[in-house]
Amino acid sequence: MKIAVDAMGGDHAPDAIIKGAIEAAKLFNGNVEIALVGNGPLLREKLSHITYRYRPQSVSIVEAAETIEMGESPVAALRKKRNSSLVVAMDLLKTGQAQAVVSAGNTGAVMASALFTTGRLEGVHRPAIVSVLPNQKGITLLIDVGANTDCKPINLLQFGIMGSLYYRHIFRCPNPRVGLLNIGEERTKGNDLTLEAYRLLSESQLNFVGNVEGQDILSGAADVIVCDGFLGNVILKFAESIVGLVSSTIKDKVASNVRSKLGAFLLAPAFVKFKRKLDYEEYGGAPLLGIDGVCVICHGSSSPKAIKNAIILALRIVNSGVNNQIKYQLQAMNTAVPVTENHRVRV
Amino acid sequence: MKIAVDAMGGDHAPDAIIKGAIEAAKLFNGNVEIALVGNGPLLREKLSHITYRYRPQSVSIVEAAETIEMGESPVAALRKKRNSSLVVAMDLLKTGQAQAVVSAGNTGAVMASALFTTGRLEGVHRPAIVSVLPNQKGITLLIDVGANTDCKPINLLQFGIMGSLYYRHIFRCPNPRVGLLNIGEERTKGNDLTLEAYRLLSESQLNFVGNVEGQDILSGAADVIVCDGFLGNVILKFAESIVGLVSSTIKDKVASNVRSKLGAFLLAPAFVKFKRKLDYEEYGGAPLLGIDGVCVICHGSSSPKAIKNAIILALRIVNSGVNNQIKYQLQAMNTAVPVTENHRVRV
Asked: Using CA atoms, how far apart are residues B18 and B237, in angstroms rounded to an integer?
C-alpha cells in the first residue's frame, strides 16, 4: 500500500508536509509506504534534518520539478505544469502505483487534476467534497462543500448516497440519517433545487429525515447533510471562523479585568475542548468522493498534525472499500431513475 | 405617528407583545401611538393587569377577530382570514392610518400580506429582508435572509442598493462597504448567479468591495453583505444557533469539574457580553425593504424586549425616510441598466 503526498502544496510546504508524513509513517509501522512527491534535492535535504526515528523504507521521494502555486488558475496550471508535484502524485494514483493522494495545495487544482487524471466512478455525475462538522453528540458530514457551484437535483441525490455510504463505512454507522439543507421543515419549502431534490431523496432508499435548517447543522439532527457546493462552502468557512470570534470576543473582555482573567485561566481546558471540537486539524482533510481513486484535500494552512490525520484518513478510505460501494449503488440507481433533460450532466 | 403592532402573532402572543409595546410607549413619551391589533376583549383584559405606568392614550386597541397561526400556509391563511390581526394591521398601513407594522407572526404570511397590501416601491423588483449580524468592530447587514428563495443577478444588485441606503440612514455611515457573499475573492469565482451579480455590482455606484467569503461574515470585511434569500436564511439560522452550541459545550465540560465551575462563574460577565453580541433580541427585528411602507418582522419567539426594540427600529426607519431614497435610486438605476430577458422580474 502506497500513499502519494503532494509535498510542495500548502502554505507551510514542504516542512509541515514532511513532518506530518513522517508522523503518519511512524504510526503505520512499516505497513504503508508514503511517497513524498516534489523537489527531490530539497526533500532529501529536509529529511536529513529530521531527528525523530522512523523506518527509512516507509518514506520515499518521487521527483517532481514544478509546483502549482496557491493563487494560480487551476486549469491553466495543470496544462502548463505537467511535472508539478500534484500532477505527478495523481499519475501515481492513476497508474496504480499509489492507492491514494493527499494534498494541501491549490484546492481547485487538486479537484481538477483528480477529475482529469482518474476520472469519475461509473454512475457518478459529479464528485463532491465531504467535510466534517462537530455536533453536540458526535459529528455531521456536510456534502458538497465546494466541488460544484451550480447543482441539479440529481446531483444532490447522489451526494446523499455518497455521503451516506461514506458515513456508514468510515464512521461505522449502519443507517446514517440523511437531511437536506433547506429553509423550512416542510417539503413545500425551499428553492427550485431543493424542492425537486426533496422529492428524489424521499423516493430513494436512503434513511432520509427530510429538511434540516441552519440551526440544525450543529445540532446532530442528521448524520449527513446534503447541499450544493456553493452553500456548503460558505457554511464551512463561516463555521471555521467562529472559533476565532468566540476566542477574540472573550479575550477582549478578559483583557480588561482581573476577575475575567482568572476565570479564563480556570476555564482554559474547557475552551481547548471547544476549540478542538471545531478544529479542522482533528479531521485531517476533506475527501473528494465520486472519483475513481482516493483523494484527500487538506487546508492550505495545514499543520503537520492535519497532514498526519489526512494521511490516516486516506488509508481508512482505501481500506473501507467505500468507492466500490458507491459505484455499485449509483449504477443501481441510474437504472431506477431516468436521467431526464433536467438532470443532464454538466461538468 | 402611529405604529400598528400585530398583538396576536408570535409564540408568546399576546403577553410578550403587549409588554414590549408598553415598554416602547413609555420611551416614546406620548409622541407616538402604538395600535395593538387583535382580539379586543382579550387585549383589554390583559392591559388592565399591567401594573407599570404609561400614558393610556399612547396605546390603543384595534379590533381583529381572527389570528393566523404559525403553521398555516401563508397564502391560504391570508385569503381566508381577512379579519386577522396581521391583515388588519397591514390595512392600517395601506390606508395611511399607521406608518409602520411590527409582527412576530408567521413570517411567510407577514411578507405576503405586506407585498399584497402595500405593494412594492416603484423600481423594486423584489423586496428583501435585512438582518443584523455582529462583527468584531460593529455590525454587518445581511440581505436577503429569506424573502426570495431563487434570485436573479439584478435582484442581488438591488439588494445591495437597498442595504447600502438602509445602512447609511439607520447606522449613520456615509458610504457603507457592500460585499457579495461568494466562495472566493476573485471575480472569476462563484456560481452563475454571483458571477453575473459581481459584474452588476462592480459597475454600480455602490462602494462595492468585491466578494466576501464565509469567514468574512463576522469579520467586519463589509458593512452590507448581499446574497440570495436561501443562502441568507441558512446562514442566519446557523449563526443564531451558535450561541447555544458555545454555551452547551462549555457547560458540559463545566458540569464535570470544580475548577471549570469556578472559572465559568468568574467569566460569566464576558459570556453575557458574547451572548448579547449574537442575540437577535438586541436588534429587535428584521425590516422587509422594498415594500411601499415600513414593516419589521420579528422572531416568532420574540420576548417583550425584542418587540420593544422592533418598535423602536420601525420608528427610526419611518423617520429616516429611507424608502424615498430607495425609490429615487432604483428609478435612476432602472433607466441605466436595461432589464434584459435574463433579468426578468419573477414574483
From this structure: 26
Q: Let me know whether A188 and A222 are in one domain.
A: yes
CATH code at position A75: 3.40.718.10
Mutate to test the interface with A, among B186, B231, B247, B267 (most CBs of A within 10 A): B267
Same-domain pairing of A136 and A268: yes
Same-domain pairing of B103 and B170: no
pLDDT-based confidence at A270, cuts 50/70/90?
low
**Residue B333 covered by a domain:** no
Residue A326 included in any domain: no
Which residue among A146, A191, A274 sits closest to B230, beta carbon to beta carbon?
A191
Where do we find the cell 496544462?
Answer: A79
Q: How far does A268 lie from chain B, in Å, by closest CA?
A: 8
Q: How far apart are CA B117 and CA B24, in angstroms?
A: 26
Nearest to B226, CA basis, from B266, B175, B176: B176
Give the Cα separation of A281 and A303 in Å (integer): 7
Same structural domain for residues A104 and A7? Answer: yes
Q: Which of A168, A75, A98 is nearest to A130 (CA)?
A: A168
Other C-beta atoms closer than 10 Å to the C-beta of A119 total 14
User: Are A250 and B274 an interchain contact pair (Cβ–Cβ within 8 Å)?
Assistant: yes
Minimal Cβ distance to B249: which of A238, A259, A274? A274
Does residue A3 lie in a domain region? yes
Q: What is the DSSP letter of A121?
A: P
Chain A CB within 8 Å of residue B155 CB: no
Each residue of B146-205: pLDDT tens digit? Answer: 999 999 999 999 999 999 999 999 999 999 999 999 999 988 889 999 999 999 999 999
Structural domain boundaries, residue B256: 130-282
Nearest chain A Cα distance for residue B206, angstroms: 23
Assess B112–A contact: CB distance below 8 Å, yes or no.
no
Examine the domain organization and report whether B315 and B275 are in the same domain.
no
Please list every residue in chain A whose beta carbon sits closer than 8 Å to the beta carbon of residue B266: 259-260, 262-263, 266
Cβ(B315)–Cβ(B100) below 8 Å: yes
Task: Grade residue B206 by pLDDT with cuts at 50, 70 and 90.
Answer: very high
The answer to whether residues A136 and A264 belong to one domain is yes
Express each pLDDT in B13-38 by its tens digit: 999 999 999 999 999 988 899 999 99
One domain for residues B182 and B237: yes
B232 belongs to a structural domain: yes
Kindly state whether residues A278 and A294 are assigned to the same domain: no
* Min Cα–Cα distance to chain B from A212, Å: 10
B213 to chain A, any CB pair closer than 8 A? The answer is yes
Q: Which of residues 4-63 of A touch B (CB under 8 A)?
A: none
Last residue of a domain, one of A282, A310, A335: A282
The total domain count for chain A is 2
Q: How far is B260 from chain A, CA to nearest CA, in Å?
A: 5
Amino acid sitting at position B257: N
Cα B83 to Cα A35, B105, B298, B330, B335, distances in angstroms: 74, 15, 21, 34, 40
What is the distance between the alpha carbons of residues A236 and A227, in angstroms, rounded to a whole number? 12
pLDDT of B144 higher than 80? yes
**Whole-structure pTM value:** 0.89
